Amino acid sequence: MAEDRSVGGGRSEAGRVGYAAGGFDLFHVGHLNILKHAKSQCDYLIAGVVSDEMLLLTKGVLPVVPLAERLQIVHHISFVDEAIAEVLEDKMQTWAQLKFDVFFKGDDWRDTPRGRHLEREFAAVGVEVVYFPYTVSTSSTSLRRALDALSEVPREARA
Questions:
Q1: CATH, residue 109
Q2: The whole model's pTM is what?
Q3: Domain presence at residue 53
């Protein structure tokens, strides 16, 4: 699915490879900012679009936008060199397949048991973990809540 948009022939010649995973459901400016900031800190950016099944397993919700469409959206963001479906819960298994040098994550993971565990595992294989600020003003969760609220309002009241 992913088109190789890197200069010089692909990931093998890319230099510093970054990996940013996310649900990217109801794509919004927070998602765009994460990808933009991630690309500014690597030469080749892989975006892992979390599968529907993994979102259900890890967050307890199915996405509004199906995986195939989310992959297409993320693939066409200019900061992204490659978009893949993330189907593994274990980030070390993902690293074993992709061999990235830096892992980008929202700062809601910073100083949490899961975040510290991830940092230790990645440090053992030489991967840097970089945290980005969470976009408080916009999130897929808040957009989903707004959509749910709208669906509860009778159609004639919305006109």
A1: 3.40.50.620
A2: 0.80
A3: yes
